[in-house]
């Protein structure tokens, strides 16, 4: 309990994470209390992806660059990156933030997460959901 209170103090922390086999490792600078989006699009709903979206400068790939494969579809803007060994997509470049990174919060090591607020996102109706999000 003391550790959770310490993490919730407000300052961003470095969260570590990676794929299932451990070849791909990264860290990301974000609050200890993370807000994530649960998207229902065809890609995210199939993989139970929880989006923690950060600027590119807050993300560092520590290992496994050569172990990643890329998949694109539709507009080709999103760059879905998967570990070629275990198949896990622990992060990618999202269509909504092509200059940023979306980290799968389920791939973060839990020791630095104080809390996680999950907000549904209607990715099936992407254009409308984007304009609703921008209006906030």
List the helices and strands and how they pair.
Blueprint: H1 2-7, E1 13-18, E2 25-30, E3 33-39, H2 42-47, E4 50-55, E5 59-63, E6 68-71, E7 79-83, E8 91-93, E9 100-104, E10 115-121, H3 126-134
Parallel strand pairs: 3-10
Antiparallel strand pairs: 1-2, 2-5, 3-4, 4-9, 6-7, 7-8, 8-9
Features:
disordered N terminus; 3 helices; three-stranded antiparallel beta sheet; alpha+beta
Can you give me a brief rundown of this structure?
With 136 residues, the chain is an alpha+beta fold. The chain has helices at 2-7, 42-47, 126-134; strands at 13-18, 25-30, 33-39, 50-55, 59-63, 68-71, 79-83, 91-93, 100-104, 115-121.
Could you characterize what this model shows?
It is globular, with a radius of gyration of 15 Å. It has one domain (2-134): Metal Binding Protein, Guanine Nucleotide Exchange Factor, Chain A (Beta Complex), CATH 2.170.150. Residues 1-5 have low confidence and may be disordered. With 136 residues, it is an alpha+beta fold. The chain has three helices and ten strands; from the N terminus they run H-E-E-E-H-E-E-E-E-E-E-E-H. The strands form two sheets. The chain has a seven-stranded mixed β-sheet with strand order 6-7-8-9-4-3-10, with no helix packed on it.
What proportion strand? 35-45%
Distance between the termini: 33 Å
Architecture, according to CATH? Beta Complex
User: What's the shape?
Assistant: globular
State the total count of DSSP E strands. 10
CATH class: Mainly Beta
* CATH topology label: Metal Binding Protein, Guanine Nucleotide Exchange Factor, Chain A
The major sheet is characterized as:
7 strands, mixed
Please state the CA-atom Rg, rounded to the nearest Å.
15 Å
What's the tally of helices?
3
Going by helix content, strand content and strand pairing, the class is: alpha+beta
The helicity comes to: 10-25%
Number of domains: 1
Low-confidence parts lasting 5 or more residues at pLDDT below 50? 1-5
Average pLDDT for all residues: 89
- In sequence order, what are the helices and strands, one letter per element? HEEEHEEEEEEEH
């Amino acid at each position: 309990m003391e550790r959770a209170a310490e993490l919730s103090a407000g300052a961003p922390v470095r969260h570590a994470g990676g794929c299932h086999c451990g070849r791909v490792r990264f860290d990301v600078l974000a609050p200890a209390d993370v807000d994530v989006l649960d998207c229902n699009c065809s890609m995210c709903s199939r993989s139970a992806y929880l989006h923690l979206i950060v600027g590119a400068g807050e993300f560092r790939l520590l290992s496994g660059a050569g172990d990643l494969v890329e998949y694109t579809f539709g507009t080709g803007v999103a760059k879905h990156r998967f570990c070629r060994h275990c198949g896990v997509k622990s992060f990618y470049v999202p269509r909504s933030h092509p200059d940023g990174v979306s980290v799968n919060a389920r791939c973060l090591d839990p020791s630095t997460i104080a809390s996680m607020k999950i907000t549904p996102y209607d990715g099936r109706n992407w254009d409308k959901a984007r304009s609703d999000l921008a209006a906030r």
